Amino acid sequence: MANRAIAQHDRRAKGIDGDQLLNALTTALLAINQQNVIIYANTATEQLFRSSADHMLNKPLTAFLPKDSPVFALIEQVRSQRSIVSEYGLTLETPRIGINFMNIQATPVVEQPGIVALTLQQRSIADKIDRQLTHRGAARSVTAMAAMLAHEVKNPLSGIRGAAQLLEQNANDEDRPLTELIRDEADRICDLVDRMGVFSDTGPLQREAVNIHQVLDRVHKLAKNGFGSHLKFVNEFDPSLPAVLGNRDQLVQVFLNLVKNASESAPKINGQITLSTAYQQGVRFAVPNSDKRVHLPLQISVSDNGSGIPDDLKPYLFDPFVTSKPQGTGLGLALVAKIIGDHGGVIECDSNSKKTTFRIILPMFSTTQDT
Ligand SMILES: Nc1ncnc2c1ncn2[C@@H]1O[C@H](COP(=O)(O)OP(=O)(O)OP(=O)(O)O)[C@@H](O)[C@H]1O
Ligand SMILES: [Mg+2]
């Protein structure tokens, strides 16, 4: 014990105050006793919970986190195992702090049984981008399935469709609706397989200088004359926007999917969709696993005034087959994420109960191709 005290003493030079050090941390650090009552909170904890240490001390942790928060399960695990437990990307939700993605570590304080130290670290933007890369991974796992579907489903399907068409020629009035049903449903499955086909990697992407306003105009026209005819469209274009380095057809697909989602979410009455573009000089992103930084100056966003994305869907938004619509395939946003990823761009989403915005940032076309 004496040795231990000496070791602790040695760790701290004269004039250094441990409390000042803990308050200098950007990681929230708090300690709770056996009854889950807060007995220590550093400055970062005050900021995270938007509450002063005075107010937090001697209060139960349940005053700041909902009783069913996964943090309590972590704490119990620490007490029963007497070892450190870490959880990455935990969703912390409270009325005061909103929804936060956190990395949380719970550590038993060995010298004082029952006391648990908790560190809570907010996930950074880099982390969010990392998550987006995981979505790309998820899209990639669909690739093999897409290839299999195209081969094993589409070919026999065209046989079924042809047979239904032949039967239709000689069918009586009673049977004709049935043959039509076979044909229509076969077409629907074919469409689905075609959409999945985009996930299969078909060699290097043909890229050129694309005027994004022409892409948006086309999407606007398609929407206005079809699924979005009841909506008001507002275009806020920056006329000096330089060309995007990209594939025109794929970019049309991207914005068609975003505008379709927006129109499905906007209210039937007074529904509005805003398409906007802007040039941002200083936006640079680190490329994961490399020291390269890319310049992504072109911003294009699609907003709607619908009631927003359900919270439970947000973390999985870009994963394939995630949908809240009875007739949805959940492939739209997975496809968008895959195409934007292939273009070296980033997609972000901001959504609340009054407005949802999908923002895409893309590299600029340059004659040297050095973005
Ligand atoms: N603008 C938006 N407002 C509210 N929710 C949205 C919006 N865009 C997407 N979502 C939510 O994300 C889910 C996934 O969208 P995605 O486009 O991938 O599939 P989908 O629209 O359901 O199906 P599909 O695109 O195949 O018709 C949607 O079901 C919806 O719940
Ligand atoms: Mg969709």
In short:
With 371 residues, this protein is of the alpha+beta class.
Structural commentary:
With 371 residues, the protein is of the alpha+beta class. It folds into 3 domains: 2-123, PAS domain (Beta-Lactamase, 2-Layer Sandwich); 125-203; 205-371, Histidine kinase-like ATPase, C-terminal domain (Heat Shock Protein 90, 2-Layer Sandwich). It is built from 10 helices and 14 strands. It has helices at residues 2-10, 18-24, 43-49, 53-56, 70-81, 125-170, 176-197, 212-224, 248-265, 332-342, and strands at 28-32, 38-41, 85-94, 98-108, 116-122, 208-210, 232-236, 244-246, 272-279, 284-286, 293-295, 298-304, 346-351, 356-362. Strands 2-1-5-4-3 form a 5-stranded antiparallel beta sheet. Strand 4 (98-108) and strand 5 (116-122) form a beta hairpin. The longest helix is centred in the middle third of the chain and has 46 residues, at 125-170. The model is unreliable at 1-6 (pLDDT under 50). Adenosine-5'-triphosphate (ATP) binds next to helix 9 and helix 10.
Structural class: alpha+beta
| Share of β-strand residues | 15-25%
**Beginning-to-end CA distance, first to last residue:** 60 Å
Total E-strand runs: 14
What is the alpha-carbon Rg in Å?
27 Å
Keywords:
371 residues, alpha+beta, Beta-Lactamase, Heat Shock Protein 90, 3 domains, five-stranded antiparallel β-sheet, five-stranded mixed β-sheet, 40% helix, disordered N terminus, binds adenosine-5'-triphosphate, binds magnesium ion
Please give the structural blueprint.
Layout: H1 2-10, H2 18-24, E1 28-32, E2 38-41, H3 43-49, H4 53-56, H5 70-81, E3 85-94, E4 98-108, E5 116-122, H6 125-170, H7 176-197, E6 208-210, H8 212-224, E7 232-236, E8 244-246, H9 248-265, E9 272-279, E10 284-286, E11 293-295, E12 298-304, H10 332-342, E13 346-351, E14 356-362
Parallel strand pairs: 7-9
Antiparallel strand pairs: 1-2, 1-5, 3-4, 4-5, 6-8, 9-12, 10-11, 12-14, 13-14
Helix pairs in contact: 6-7, 6-10, 8-9, 9-10
